[in-house]
Sequence to fold (185 residues):
Amino acid sequence: MNRDTERKQIEALILKYEKTVYKLAYSYMKNKQDTDDIYQEVFLRFFRKKPEFENEEHEKAWFIRTTINCCKSYYLSGWVKRTMSFEEGTYGCEDSYEMGGRSDLFYAVMELPVKYRTVIHLFYYEGYTVREIAELTGEKVTTVTTRLSRAREQLRDVMDPAGEPKRRGAGRLAAAGTREKCVRY
Fold:
């Protein structure tokens, strides 16, 4: 295979999975800079290992699993344990990966703990079943079901049926509607 053909295949692969990897990494990292690092690491791992896949679904699952693993590894690193971000808990106002229809629900989801954000993202945004999410995350099916249920309950507590934040002290997710502190993807 010549270099030009290989380069085109690489570009096609990145275009195919870039949004999935970036969105999932952002749901873990909650800031653009760390998300960019994870995004780069996932594709570097792919190009270094060059795994063979049985089918397209297996390929997508590999990218999701690798993204989750990279995010977890990042949080376990000594660097993260010994440092604290300058503006902990805030979002930058970068302009990458615009997501149409940004809503208060998005901000509420981003305020959920990472274990809930992950299952919400994989279930609603990626379209995986509970069983598939369990395989991807290495959790039991009942654990994934419980996390989905608890995430929905937390979202219900801060959102009214019309999808708007409840105005009477929305609890710990009250900052969920802060639009100026967002990363677009």
Q: What stands out?
A: The CA atoms of residues 158 and 174 lie 7 Å apart. The longest helix spans residues 3-29. Residues 84-100, 168-185 have pLDDT under 50 and may be disordered. The two ends are 34 Å apart (CA to CA).
